[in-house]
Write a structure and sequence with these properties.
Elements (H helix, E strand, L loop, with lengths): L20 H8 L3 E5 L2 E4 L1 H20 L3 E2 L5 E3 H7 L9 E4 L6 E4 L4 H9 L10 E10 L14 E11 L2 H21 L6 E7 L6 E8 L5 E6 L4 E4 H4 L14 E15 L9 E3 L5 E3 L1 E8 H11 L1 E2 L2 E2 L10 E5 L5 H16 L4 E4 L5 H11 L3 E5 L7 E5 L6 E3 L1 H8 L1
EC number: 6.1.1.15
InterPro entries: aa-tRNA-synt_IIb, aa-tRNA-synth_II, aa-tRNA-synth_II/BPL/LPL, Anticodon-bd, Anticodon-bd_dom_sf, Pro-tRNA-ligase_IIa, Pro-tRNA_synthetase, ProRS_anticodon_short
Pfam family, one: HGTP_anticodon
């Protein structure tokens, strides 16, 4: 992509109404634009990051046996009344149609939709287990929309739902899902700061589990057990001030962001919709359910909160909008421009995603924007570099000169 063709421009200053680091840098660098409190537009760079994260998650969900669907945002009141959550779900957006006079909700979650859907396809023990997921936008009437992408009113989530014959089968799959989540966070370079966190299971089971990423920008307080490499949330620590696995009392208090969660729903949402199957003896049994969520907007915000310096974002390579940022310095010089154009074309032919700063602006502005945008590799071509390319990683200070052949080998 040529930077001169972009309709988006970087900003020198962050909006005055944004306090969160992730919002400041994402807006300044042209990844997102704020429409209103808690609602952001993904611009071309931001959408590329979003798609990279989406694809990492999708691969793991498919490896878990998940089949992808897309459920509607618009949900009927009747389904929410069946589960008793029409009046009790705190942040539910509700409205009435002017024409049909029916009441609807904008989906904050999809248990009320997935359960009656699967009822149409599950009738026998031979139909189980089943795993269904989606990546879709959610709406919550959040009273405290703040912290940029960390707490919004409209955001994207991955929901995976599993359907089982019994609790033993759910337990087996639940453990697989934990491992998949750890893989996802490792690919995104978040694994060293993301902890499986014990939380209350509510009416579902003794525990549910969150995945909490440590950062000072987090609103949650967790207590880390360095022995077991797990954490406990505040709700649990009020009841037991020890690690639930090893009994360790020396837990480390940290601020964190919840980037994912998993629940054993059991029959909580199969029961209201009469989601049943006939077992091997022809007896009707209730389907056992699990659910597994990851917040995509929140992941993007969390990554920026962790991977940045005073100049801008430092994207991990797996989620970066491009692999390399090619800067043509003083590109009015015909020999520089020709060589830069050639390198850009050859990188594209090699399947390397590259942003080419071919704008006629100062070298200082190009370097400043490159640091702000935060693409992993900066490539500079100028009269000084001759027939070589200056390469520098965004998170390193030193640059070096390499040949085109070495560059292609490195980036491949």
């Amino acid at each position: 992509m040529r930077q001169s063709d972009l309709f988006v421009k970087t900003k020198r200053e962050a909006p005055k109404d944004e306090e969160a680091i992730n919002a400041k840098f994402l807006i300044r660098a042209g990844f997102v634009d704020k429409l209103m409190a808690g609602v952001y537009i993904f611009l071309p760079f931001g959408l590329r990051v979003f798609k990279n994260i989406e694809n990492i998650i999708r691969k793991e969900m498919e490896d878990l046996g998940g089949q992808e669907i897309l459920m509607p945002t618009l949900q009927p009141k009747a389904n929410w009344e069946k589960t008793g959550r029409w009046e009790t779900y705190d942040s539910l957006f509700k409205f009435a149609s002017f024409y049909s006079k029916n009441d609807y909700a904008l989906g904050p979650t999809h248990e009320e939709i997935i359960s009656p859907l699967l009822k149409k396809f599950i009738s026998s023990y031979k139909d189980l287990p089943k795993y269904v997921f989606q990546i879709q936008n959610k709406f919550r009437d959040e009273p405290r929309a703040k912290s940029g992408l960390l707490r919004g009113r409209e955001f994207f989530m991955k929901d995976l739902y599993s359907f089982h014959k019994n609790e033993a089968d759910l337990e087996k799959y639940y453990e697989k899902a934990k491992k998949s989540y750890h893989k996802i966070f490792k690919v995104m370079s978040l694994d060293k700061l993301t902890y499986l966190t014990f939380a209350s299971g509510g009416s579902f089971s003794k525990y549910s589990h969150e995945f909490q990423t440590l950062t000072s920008a987090g609103e949650d307080t967790v207590y880390v057990c360095d022995e077991c490499k797990i954490a406990v949330n505040k709700e649990i620590i009020k009841e037991q001030k020890v690690c639930p696995l090893c009994g360790n009392k020396s837990l480390r208090e940290e601020k964190a962001v919840e980037v994912g969660n998993i629940f054993k729903l059991k029959t909580k949402f199969s029961q209201p919709f009469d989601l049943r199957y006939k077992d091997e003896k022809g007896k009707e049994q209730e389907v056992i359910m699990g659910c597994y969520g990851i917040g995509l907007n929140r992941l993007i915000g969390t990554i920026v909160e962790i991977f940045h310096d005073e100049k801008g974002i430092i994207w991990p390579e797996s989620v970066a909008p491009f692999q390399a940022h090619l800067l043509s310095v003083r590109c009015q010089a015909s020999n520089v421009k020709r060589f830069a154009d050639k390198i850009y074309d050859n990188l594209q032919k090699a399947g390397i995603e590259v942003l080419y700063d071919d704008r006629e602006v100062s070298a200082g502005e190009k370097f400043s924007d490159a640091d702000l945008i935060g693409i992993p590799y900066r490539l500079v071509i100028s009269e000084k570099t001759g027939d070589k390319i200056e390469i520098k990683k965004r998170n390193e200070e030193r640059a070096k000169l390499i040949s085109e052949k070495e560059l292609l080998k490195l980036l491949r």
